[in-house]
Amino acid sequence: MKKIFLSIIGLTASLATLRAQETVYPAGSQKGLVFLKNATIHTGAGQVIERGTIGFSNGKIIAVGANVAIPADDVRVFDVQGQHIYPGLIVTDSNLGLTEVESVRATNDYSEVGEINPSIRSIVSYNTDSKIINTLRTNGILLAQVVPEGGLLTGSSSVVQLDAWNWEDAAYKTDNGIHFYMPRLMPRANPFGAEARGPGGDAVKAAMDKIGQVKAFLRDAKAYLDGGSKKNGTNLKYEAVKGLFDGSQKFFIHCDLMKEMVIAADMKQEFGLDVVIVGGTDSWMIADMLKKNGIPVILSQPHSLPVMQDDDVDQPYKTPALLQKAGVLFSISNEGFWQQRNLPFNAGTAGAYGLSREEALSAITLNAAKILGIADKTGSLEVGKDANMVVSTGDILDMKSSVITRAYIQGREIDLTDKHKQLFERYKHKYQLQ
């Protein structure tokens, strides 16, 4: 009898736990005509349309402007008077969906053993059931680049849309780039870490040796792909970087220091690769060189201290404006997964340090889409592109006024419920605050 009683208690607790979990389902395919009217429309390409109207059908934008005629029949019209419509925000350089609880190893699936792993595909490990995803959607983030970590060449990233049943549904652009985490070229940056080990404890020499290792791999891969002998069978690692040499993939080089970015530019010239700098803390110092070489930058961790002691303490805030002035294509990111929910507010900070509000918005919409190779489908509110958009009561870049009331991915209106909101309602009920 005691066992039965305990079993009932356990079952009840399990059911309570299940009820406490999210019951948010991906939306079905969008069909028919939908129009949102009387909004301030921010296209993401620098244009603002007052009292504008936007229409979409079957997942695609069909009209956007101030004088859009709305059909009389078979159409759903929503009056969003006084609200703002923005393109869906795009996260770059994230391990969203590859980890859930950092301190629980079993939930971390973003890193592989070894240093040269270009054949690893992050997309197949993407977890669409992550509780983190919905907290990003609440702040207007609808797309994310999912990036592998660990080692030097860590594998390929993919772009996912954040309303899906599984990774196949989520895939927006698969295997869009290979990632190289360049070792830091700074003497004994960590006297107890791997960077400090090497001949004579010379961290810089050890780092240069690792960079040379990656260059040697790329030379061998190019020779193999150019028709070199395959008598020993298919080499999966060489095959994985084929896109780097035929232009279908980008080479994302993670580095921060000026001399590291110079090496990245040299690699672009030597191998003819489409290079993107990720990190780019010192990119403002060599903005002209980056512009000349056509190298975009994904700025990571803008809410952080500068690398060098002599830099202005607010240099990370000012860097986006300096790159904008120099004509360098750049985006703003925030390393990690749950931290990415603050993406619009990071861009808002850049908007307070030299960028206009529309330039700051473009940094996390159209610029990000261009860097990721998806600007033909998303990143701005233009006819023919996917209907990826969010509706906010205020400025989406301002933490105080931004409240997302609607969000659409490929025209599908998604549920904006998340774990934070559920817990908020739960404890309002507990303490009788509602």
TrEMBL record:
Domain (Amidohydrolase-related) ranges: 351-411
Family annotation (Gene3D superfamilies): Metal-dependent hydrolases (3.20.20.140)
Pfam families associated with the record: Amidohydro_1
Protein's name according to its UniProt entry: Amidohydrolase family protein
Source organism of this protein record: Chitinophaga caseinilytica
